[in-house]
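idk why but the lab printer keeps eating my pages so im just putting this in chat instead. protein + magnesium ion:
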Amino acid sequence: MSLLEIKNINKRFGGLHAVNDVSFSVAEKTIKAVIGPNGAGKTTLFNLISGNIPANSGEVYFNNKPIQGLRPHQIAQYGISRTFQNIKLFPGMSALENVMVGCHPKSKAGFLEGMFRLPSTWKEEKNIRKKAIELLDLLDITDLAHIEATSLAFGQQRAVEFARALASEPTLLLLDEPAAGLNIYETAEVARLITKIQQRGITVLLVEHDMSLVMDISDEIVVLSFGRKIAEDHPAAIQQNKEVIQIYLGDDDA
Ligand SMILES: Nc1ncnc2c1ncn2[C@@H]1O[C@H](COP(=O)(O)OP(=O)(O)OP(=O)(O)O)[C@@H](O)[C@H]1O
Ligand SMILES: [Mg+2]
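predcted complex ->
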């Protein structure tokens, strides 16, 4: 069954057709990657799915329900969570507190009320804290809980970001370039964590430039070039695809 289905979606910025009639679906509990050169429209596509920008036309279905036109917080409540191309952790807060903030959308009382330990919210704050600790544990960063998040190494910040994105209990996780700026060891750890997240039954849609990461962990790959989908296949087939090789190597003889 497909969890996410994108049908003929279009986004124009003035005269630029950033996402041009793109359609594909993401099967439940799989990892799908979106690749393509800089400016291909990958982040724009994510912004369309998460409701951060409106589409000019086309449809997005999540669990067979249309979600285009909904506000980002509504889409988050449906079960889609995302991380951003540039890590956006809250400064002045520990790793644990950053994850606790992510628990907020489904909690009844506000996070700040919880922080002030009002009697009515005390139990809830305790539950949020427990859940955040479990998520840090899932991502193998329990020992970083009380360290200021923005002072951590980039690879560790990525793991905190994953934990925060998982705190809203999504069924679909959108990751925009999770390995950007990471060294090979940190990238290998990110690959392991994404696979671990998938094994928890969460579907992952991933934008990434690191081809070995993409080829290692993806079930399927969509290739965008100048806003258009030019290929969609299994990793082994994508590696052999002449058009894909051409756009990456710029080699007419490829
Ligand atoms: N808000 C915007 N206003 C105008 N143009 C935009 C806007 N956002 C993106 N673009 C343009 O749309 C095109 C697609 O951008 P997008 O960020 O989606 O590319 P990308 O595939 O994510 O690239 P990268 O790999 O560099 O992150 C680019 O030409 C970009 O300059
Ligand atoms: Mg991008």
